[in-house]
RNA sequence: GCCCGGAUGGUGGAAUUGGUAGACACGUCAGACUUAAAAUCUGAUGGCCGUAAGGCCGUGCGGGUUCAAUUCCCGCUCCGGGUACCA
């Protein structure tokens, strides 16, 4: 029989679909298993070969678990809000919902071809109002909640209001910004004096106006409005990601970009900092991802230290955070971020121009550019602060390398102990106090953690660990500082000035935001998907009557970010059609945490942190019974594309072949990989590819061919290196594609995509098919059973440790070994092998299951067990090595013990030959493994 | 810059707990079949020296620990990912 994969795959996909084989329901009699995939964004380029990689892996596990008797939830859906659809809408005027729908159906069809065991009846998409009404509902809950530090969880806002009514804010500790009262507009609080420091009584509270109460509550809500710094591009009328800013200009269009403070919705994720770190302990994630999340939260213990301004700046206090209070005596200057509120106060008149210039320049750099900056820059402000312990006057600077958003936006510089501070001091010729014994601070920075302090008064003679507590006590007793825990984590900006995202269920009445409950605020129609002339978000184009729901004086016109919908989708899959709840409690209790999440490591600090945050929040509200979403996670590597390039001679439409490009001034352009075979360009195809190349001329190789350059890089539409799975499915079948993607290498490693090896895998399936079809209804032979059971053991243990690639090799070896047996193979002997194949090549396995006389469908067959009796090896081949180098092999009965092995080896004439008279110093025998003779 | 990964033949990779480096595939070469080609099958295939037996070298680079290191430790190089509004 020929391996007719086309009809086999079509047939079995129809059978599964008719029998609804992959639809699941809660079943109390079976253990559950929840396998989840990364939520795909349906881009216009369609699914590329990198997408299915993770999906195939999770499908293999899902099918394996099903064979093992688990009730498996394996859903798929779409993260369908996003920028590309919006940009396409801006360019063409087409509503993003239309583009999105087209893209989704393409994705869905592509996935269906591959034969995934997804329960499609559970499909969700974030841009569907029946989905995003619940995203809005969760937002509403966050808006109506505060974080009680004492009980360590979120609480309904009403409990906070009740507390304020009773005792003001005296008996309660709510998560908030440090110095939250400084965010308030004092005009709203006429009876609070200048020295208000955040304490108010019940009477104070009751006397506040509604606006004032709103302003206070806003400081404690988990979803709240606040000013935050963004990359504002006036020309485009929009905020840009750091990604979209290059050298202070927008990537798109090259317009100037500046840092600007804007009123934005924020998420108080910082309230969960400690829980986000502690929760990692129980997760089965790679250490590197856990480490990255810990670093992202960035909990550090240290001290806050106050430096009083002197001279013109007296009355001002610069607060800094330091993890090294022990080095306090080494402080010789203070650096403020260019955006720091006190910059003006410390700037002397003669420095004003220079400072303003510097602040302006800095405002044009993105945060990342500033952190990546290698050259040292800054300005001495002219003002001074007083060293809290020595009383010395020390200068104040501003510099790029201090970020406004981290800590207090100011640092105390210890040039002898910090690399950046040291370089800065050298550059500006600032004094470098030598505080480490035996170290020349003028020559280099000290990085010795165990260095002994000197010139530090009461800290002299101590090392870091002993000095820190003493320094902290000193600070606290003199009142110029205190112990403090600082976090790198910042609250997350939750507003986007975009059209294609979830609208907020928020309207404003007298400028006070009010939650719209019990109604879904759907997106209004707009005439264009661009910001308004005044720089308002696109939704501001909607007139009152355009809004399906309009309440209050005006609607919120920002939309939610991409991560809103993807922070809880795994919950919706459990109960996707529920119209009264985001997910019924009995469903989430049944399915519980995701048992296996397969996703890319590129989500480490975004999606994975936000999902954990929302899960913990829903847990606090007792809406679900677990507070971590993903129990086990595998991070798939990226499949990279192989890009091809042509070289255009600058200013001409002549293209020079790769070999001769050095002789010209050329510009390298990406060329569609479908126009290139073995690095040779299809010249005719290239000319008709794009109008601008129609009259292209070529400087070719002597044989008239044009060689392209190549590079391995990320697969993306803009690089014209996208490979879709479609043509491979067409040419080799889904089963081959599935096996090949797994065979390519370890799932977690990134690797370039290359179809060269695919024929080998296709060949394997053909040989497998031929082997089974050629088997007979007879008894299994002993060697046959041995091969099969060895394979069962290998495949099972590889699957358990998620080594997907070696499973394919193991099956290949089994087929090769069985073919080498020459004797007749039996149905009953091969039957377990067909089940082993089924997670990888389910269509072919179904077909072969019939051949070997299996009952029902192979997908429902029980996973075979390796019988120990078939696995017994009676011989062991010992490599015998001399000083670590293997010289010969010796086959011995497996029962030979250590002493016997040693004496047999020593008696072997080859041993004597190797030794050549040398004396044996030591003999190492590892039973069943190796013999090593040291001479 | 900072944080996190990775590097093994011509190529993708294997070696699970420190124990035979290169399994399994691709590619290449040779052979069989064929008038020929394709397909298929068989064999060889890390490098160097050697007719062979065999020897030396070899897991990004430089050191170290060990009877034994792709595996553990120290110091580098290069590549990839993330870096808070790409998803």
Largest sheet: 7 strands, mixed
Low-confidence stretches: none
What is the domain total for the residues? 6
Work out the number of β strands: 34
Q: Assign a percent range to the helix content.
A: 25-40%
- The total count of helices amounts to 30
Q: Between the first and last Cα atoms, what is the distance in angstroms?
A: 60 Å
Task: Provide a short characterization of the protein structure.
Helices cover 34% and strands 19% of the residues.
Q: What does the model show?
A:
- The chain is an alpha+beta fold and 935 residues long.
- The chain is 34% helix and 19% strand.
- It has 6 domains: 185 residues, 3-Layer(aba) Sandwich (Rossmann fold), CATH 3.40.50.620; 195 residues, no CATH class; 187 residues, Valyl/Leucyl/Isoleucyl-tRNA synthetase, editing domain (Isoleucyl-tRNA Synthetase, domain 2), CATH 3.90.740; 76 residues, no CATH class; 139 residues, Orthogonal Bundle (Isoleucyl-tRNA Synthetase, Domain 1); 60 residues, Ubiquitin-like (UB roll) (Roll).
- The chain is globular, with a radius of gyration of 34 Å.
- The chain starts with a helix and ends with a strand.
List the helices and strands and how they pair.
Blueprint: H1 5-19, E1 32-37, H2 50-67, E2 71-73, H3 83-92, H4 96-114, H5 129-143, E3 145-148, E4 153-156, H6 157-167, H7 202-207, H8 210-218, E5 223-233, E6 238-240, E7 245-246, E8 249-250, E9 258-267, H9 273-278, H10 287-297, E10 300-310, E11 317-322, E12 333-336, H11 343-346, H12 352-363, H13 367-372, E13 379-386, E14 393-398, E15 410-413, H14 419-428, H15 464-478, E16 481-486, E17 492-493, E18 506-509, E19 512-515, E20 554-555, H16 562-566, H17 569-572, H18 585-591, E21 596-600, H19 607-620, E22 633-636, E23 639-649, E24 654-656, E25 666-671, E26 676-677, E27 680-681, H20 683-689, E28 697-699, E29 709-714, H21 726-732, H22 734-743, E30 751-752, H23 758-773, H24 782-800, H25 804-821, H26 827-837, H27 842-851, H28 868-871, E31 875-882, E32 885-893, H29 898-907, H30 909-915, E33 922-926, E34 930-934
Parallel strand pairs: 1-2, 1-21, 12-14, 21-22, 23-30, 24-28, 31-34
Antiparallel strand pairs: 3-4, 5-6, 5-9, 7-8, 9-17, 10-11, 10-13, 10-16, 12-15, 13-14, 18-19, 18-20, 23-24, 23-25, 23-29, 26-27, 31-32, 33-34
Helix pairs in contact: 1-27, 3-4, 21-22, 22-23, 22-25, 23-25, 24-25, 24-26, 26-27
The structure holds one RNA strand of 87 nucleotides.
